[in-house]
Amino acid sequence: MSDRLDDLERRIDELRAGVRTAMRARDGAHARVLRAELRSAERAWDALVSGEQPAKEEPPRLVTVREQVHQGLRLLGAAAQPRLIVAVSTAFFGGTISSSRLTSLRRDEERSFRSLPFGRPYYLCAALTDRLSPARGLLTLSTWPLERRVVGPLSPRVDFLTCAIAVAEQKTHDERADRLLLRMARNIPGATDGTLSPPDPGRVAEAARAELRVHADRDTRDRAELAERAAAQLGDTARLFGAATLSTIKKENAT
Amino acid sequence: MSGLKREGDHAHRLEALRGTTPQQPHDARAIAALAANPGCARRALMDGAGVDKDAAARHLGFPAPFGQSPFAITRGNVFEALVKADGCAELLRMLRELLGLTVAEVAYHDVENVGAHLRHAHTRTLIDRAARDGHDAGTLYDHPLLSLEIAGHTAYLEPDVVAFQLGGRFHIVEIKSFAVIDGQADPSAVAAAARQAAVYVLALRTLLEELGHDPLKVSHDVVLVCPENFANRPVASLVDVRRQLAVLRRQLTRMTSLDRLLEELPEDLTFDLRPDEDGRPTRPVAELGDALRRTTARYAPDCLSTCDMCFFCRDEARQEGASDLLGRQVRDELGGVASVTEALGLADGTRDPAEGQEEIARLLRNAERLRGECLA
Amino acid sequence: MSLLTSLARLRALDEGIAQPIATVRHCHLAARPMVFVPLKLSGEAAAPLAAMLGTDRDRPRLLVVTQPRNRDLRFAWAAELAGVLLPYVEGFLHRTETVERRNADPYERAVDAPQIVVPNQAGVGFVRLLGRSMRFRRADGPWPVPESVPLLGRWLTYFGERAAYPGSSLMPAMTEELGRHWASGQSGLEDANLAALLAWITTGPSDDAEDPLIWPPAGPATDPGFDAEVLAPAMESGSPERVTEALRTQLEPTWGLMWQAIDLLAGLEAGAGVASRWEQDRGSFSGMAAHIAEGAPPQPRRDGAVAAAAKLARMERAQAAYDVQRAYDDPLVMAEYRLTGEAFAGEVVDTDPGNTEGEGRSRKLRPIVVIKTDDPVRLAPGASLGTPQRRGQGAELVSAGDGLVTVKITKGMGRGRTAAPGAVPEIGERVCYTSLTDEFQGSPALPDAEATPWTHGGPPQEYVPDDEDAQEEWS
Amino acid sequence: MTGSPEQVIRNVLADLPRHRGVVVDSPPGAGKSTLVVRAAAHIAATGEPLMIVAQTNEQVDDLVTRICAGHPRLTVGRLSAGGYVPPLRLLELPGVRVGTRVQDLGDPDIVIATADKWAWIGGRVWPWAIVDEAYQMRSDKLLRIAGLFERALFVGDPGQLDPFSIVDGDRWSGLSWDPLQSAVSVLLRHNPDLPVHRLPVSWRLPASAAPVVSRAFYPFTGFRSGTSEGDRRLELATGGMGTPHDRALEEAARSGWALLELPNRHTVRTDGEAVQAVALLAGRLLQRGAVASSEQGERPVTADRVAVGAAHRDQVAAIRAAGVPPEITVDTANRLQGREYDVTIVLHPLSGRRDATAFHLESGRLCVLASRHRHACVVVARAGIADLLDAHPSAEPVQLGVPVKFPDGWEANQSVLDHLSRHRV
Known about the structure:
The complex is a heterotetramer of chains A (255), B (376), C (475) and D (425). Chain A has eleven helices and two strands, in the order H-H-H-H-H-E-E-H-H-H-H-H-H.
C-alpha cells in the first residue's frame, strides 16, 4: 500500500506543479484538464490514507431552507439581507442554512409562482426599488403589505432599525443571539455602553426607536408613494418579484 | 490646424501600435499605476496605446509574477459586503463617529438598481441632483460608475461608495481588507489605496465640473475603511490625497504628450499581438520581442512589483549587462556608467576612462584597491 | 550602501557568484538556535497557517492550523507553539551571573540567551503581529485561551521589538544577516528572497529560486498559486492530513535553506564586538524575564511619549555603537570609511614617541606618528581619531597632505614620561585611523511617564488591560 | 497676508499671557531673532525669570550678543557644557555670566542655553521660556525640557529641514508624540487651540527672491519682501571676460538669480566639473569686487558675506578641495540653516543625478539653499533636472494619522526650477 501511496503522492505533486505552471501561463484549458486528474488522484489518496471514502455527513434537516428563511423574516418583520436572515435563524431557531444557499431561492420562488400563482401560503420574494425593480440582495415575504416591501432612500436604515428592535425583543437570548444583538447595537447611537459586554436589549430597542422617529415620517411618505405606484403599475408576478426593466412594466401594463 | 492634425496623427499612431489587439480598458488601479515608472518609454507607449501588457508579457514567455490568493479575494469580498450590509449600517456608524454625520442623514441609493447599462447616466443624474439640491439629497451612493478620459479613451471607474452630506461635500469611500492595527496600516498598502482613491476624486471632480458645479465640492480627504486589528470590525480613517491628485494630474498630462516618443519610432512599428478568434495571440514571439525592444525601457528592480513587463525587461537588462539590474541607487552611484563590464573595467584599470568618466574611474579604482587590500 | 558594496555587486554579477563584503561575522550565532519559519493565511493580518520550527535540523516540528478561519483551532495552534517556544526561551533563565553596576543594585544576567531565527524581515513583522494578537488574551473570561498563549504573546512581542534594535541577535532575519556579509549580483529587493540570495552565495544565480514550484516562498506569505490550486481544495476536502501535507511541502525547502544559511554564517569567525553586543542582548533578555516574573502588565499597544523617546535614544545609541564596532572589527567595513575619507590606513614612516606638550606638572606625553597612505583623507586638522589597532588610544590629526598624515596620540598614553613598549606604532607598522569613534555620552534623563509635560499631552492614563483587549475578536 | 510685522509682533506679545504656548512661524529672514529679543525684553520687564532655548552654541551666542546689544541693562546667564569655550565677544559683555551650572550664574533676568544643555538641568521651573528654531528641534528634546517652564513662545521656520534620526522611526509614526516629529508639530497636535502667528515680511530676501521662495515653499501662507525692487543692488567692480561663469555672476547681479547650466550628464555626486564651476564662481565673485548696496548702506561683498551650499558632505569636501577662498563658508544645507549672506552659490541637489531620492527632493533642503541670500543666488546644475523630475516615480508610502506635509518636494523643486530657467546662462 505504501508503494501505491508514494506513487500517488508523486503523481499528485506532478499534477499540482502542472496545474500551477498552466495557471501562471494563464492556460485555463490545460489547467482544467490537469485539475480534474489531480482531484481524482487526491480522492484516491484520501481513500488510501483514511481507508474509506470520505462521506460528508449532511446534518439531518428537519425544517426546509425555505421555511427557515420564512421564520427569520417573520421574526425580523422587515426586508433583510440573507446574511442577517441566516444569523437570526442560527441564533433563535437553531437554523443550519448558509447564505450561499439563499442565492437561488428567489428565482425558485418566482418559477413556482409563475407555474401556479398563489399556490402556496407564502412566497419569499423581492423588495422593490424606486424603479419597482427587485432590490439587490433583499428578501421579503409575500404576505407583507406593499409598503413594507418597497425601499425608498431611507428604508434600508429604517428596516435595519426595525430588525434590531425585533432581535432585541426576543425573549430567549443565548450567546449567539447576544453576539448578533451586539453587532447590530454597535451601529445604533446610544445602544451600547461602548464595551463588548452583551448589551441591554431594552436599551437597544429604545435607542433604535429613538433613531427611527427621526426617519419615520419621510420614509412612510416615500413608501406610500412607491407602494401606490407599484399597485397601479405592476401585475401580480412583478408586484412580488419586481419588474425587470422599464420595458417590462410597459408590457405588463399593456396586457 | 497643425495642432489638430498632430493630435489626429498621434491617436492614429497609438492605434497602429496596438494593432488588432483589443483596447485594454484602464481601471483605477491601472491609472494609478501610471506613476510607478514615468521615465519608462516602453511602458508609456504601451499604456498610451492601451496594449494589454499582461497578455504581451505572457505571450513573450515572461509572465508577470503577480497573483492573488483566493483567500485574499474572498476576504476582500466578505469584508466589503460586511461594511455595506444592512443599508451600510457599519459605514454610517463610522461616518457619524469620524465626520460627525448627523443621525438624520441615512438616505441610501444603490445606483446599480437601474441596471448596468444605465449606471453611468444614473450616477450623473444623482450626483447632479445632490450637488444642486444640497441638504435634500441622498447620503450614500452605492455602486456608482464614473468616467475619466485617458489618452483619448474613456475609462470607467467604480468607486466603492460615494458619500455626500459631510459638510456639504462629496467624499470617496474606499473599502480595503488590509488591517489597521493599533491605528497603523502597511504604508505601501495605504499609499496604493490613496492613489486609487485619487483617481475617483479626480473623476468625480471632472463630473461636477461638466455639470457646472464647483469641483471642489469633492473632498480631497477620502474615507478609508479597513478591518481593525485582528477582527472583522471595520474602522474608518481619513486620508488626504492631495499629493496623489497632483501626481495623477501630471501623469494624465504626460499621457497626452507622447508625441516626442512617437516621433522617434519607426513608421511600421506595432505591438500587435494578432489575436485569433479565441483571443489567443498569434504574432511570432521573436517578432513581438523585437518590436518592443525598439522602444527604450527603464528597468529598475521596483518594476518587479509594479509592471507586467518586468521579467521581459529584466531579461533584456541582463543581456545588456546593465547596472540597472542592481537598483536605482547603484545605478546613480556609478554616475554615467551604465554597463557592468565598463564599470569593472574602470575599476581594475583594464579600461581607460572616457571623457567625463575620470571621476568615477578614480573612485572605482580606489574602491577596487581597498577591496583587494582587505580581501588579500 | 556604499560604492564599495556596489562594486562588490557588480563583481558578483560579472562572476556569477556573490562577493564577500565582510571578513568577520557581525552577528552572534547561538549554539542552539531556534529556527522558526511561519506561514500566514493570505488576506488576513496575522492568521497563522503553519510553522516549522525547532533546534534540531533533522527533527523539525510542524504546526498547522488545518482550518485557519476557525478561531479555536488558531488558539490551539498558538498553545502548541507556546509548548515549543516557551520551554526553549525559559530554558535559558536558570543559569545566570551576577552583574555589578555603578549607582545601581547588582542584577542577574543569563549566561546565554535564546536566539530565534526567521527567514526574512517580513517574518519578524509577522512575529510582532502574532505577539500583538496574543498578549492581551486571558485565560479566564468570555474567550478563554490557555495560559501559555498570552505569555507567548509577550515574548514574541519582545523578540519582534528587539529585532529592530541595531546590533541585536536575539531574532535575526536570515536574508538580512546574509546580506550584511555577502553582496549578490541582484538588487536589494530581490535579496529578500532567501532561496535566490543563497543561490547567489553558494552556487550562482538561478531562476529556479523565483519559481514557487521549485522554491516555495520563505513566508510568511504563501504562493497565491499554491493557495488556489493546492491549499484551498485541501481545506475544502475537510481532510486535516491533506492540509498538513500540503503545507509541509511549502515549509520543508525553506527549513533546509535556513540551516544551510546558518552553516554559512558559522563558517565566518565572529567579530570582536559580537560578544559584547550579545552580552547586551543577554542583559535585555534577563530584564524582560524579570519584568514578566514581577507580574508587570503586557506591553502596551503603542509606546507612550516618554517610552518612545527613551527607546529612540537607546536605539540611536545602539546604532552608532554598532556602526563603529563593525568598522573597528572588520577592515572591509572600515574600507567604506577610507573610501569616503573619514578613515585612512597606511604604513608608519616616522615617529616621535617622546614628544611632549606643556611644561612642569602639566607636561604630557603626546607621541607623533607620521603615516604614508594612498587613501584620500578628508579630515581637518584637529579632528579626533581612534584606531582599531590600539582601541584604548585617542589621537588627533595634525596635518594631512601629499599622502602623508601626521597624527598626535592624545589619549591612552598613561602618566609615564616615556611611552610603554608597543604603545606607539613602530616605523613600518600598518595602522588605520578614523574619525569614527564610539564615545559614549550618557543621554539626559527623561521625565517619569506620570510627569509627561503638557506639550506632549500631559500624564497618560495608566494603562490597564481591560476586557476589551482580552475579548478583541479574532476573525 | 494680514497685518504689518509690527502688528504681528504686538499680537504675539499680547497673546503671551493669554496662552500656555504661542507659536510664531517665521519664513527665512523674517526677523525671528528680532522677535526673540523683543519678547525676551518684554518678559524680562515684567520681572519674571525667563529661559531661552536655542539649538546650537552659535545660535545661543548670537542671541546673547543681540540681547545685550539691544538691552544692555538686562543680565544674561549663558549655560554651557563643560568643553565649551565662549568666544571673546561674549566675555566682554558686561551683563553676561557664563557657567556650567545654574547656580554659577547668579540670578540673571535671562538664562540661555542649547536644548541639549537644558536637558541636564532640573530642580527649577521658569515661568517663561522662549524656544528658538523650534521646527528644527526634535520633539523628544522638547519632552526632556518642557518640565522646566510654565509657558513658552515657540519660534521657528516651518519651511526648513525637518529633524531626523539615524534609526528607522516608523514604529512611532501616527502617534501624536512621535519623537521624530518637530517640537512644534507635537506641541500643536496636543494643543490645537494654541495661537499660531506668522511673520509676514522677509527682511533678508530681496524683492527678486521673496516671491520665488514664498511660492515654492510657503504656498499656503506666503510672505513678502521688506524691500522693493531696486532697493538692493549688487555691482561688480571689474568687468567680466565673457566666460559663462562671469556671465552667470552678471546675471545674478542684475536679477538676483542665475542658473549656470552644465551639459546634461549623469555624474557621481562629487561631479568634478560642477564642483570646479562652483569654486570658480566663488573665486571670481571676490576677484570682481562685488559691492552690495541696500537699506543698510553700501559695502563690499567680502568672503565672510559669501556662502557655498551643497546637499552632501562629500560635495562640501570636494568644493573646499577645489580651491574656494578659505574665508568663504562652504557647508551642507543642514548646517546653513538660520544663516545669512549677501551672495550664495549653490550646487543643485539634483545636478547630475539619474534618479531623485526622497533626500534629494526634500523641500526643506532646497528651501535652505535658496533662501540664505540678501542679494543674489547662483545655482550650478547640470541640464536634465526637468526630465529627471518628469521621470520621477511616485510611490511614497502613506502613514495613517500623519498629516501630509506641504509643500511637496516635487512641486517645490519644479517651481524653483521653473524660475531658474529664466536666468539660465
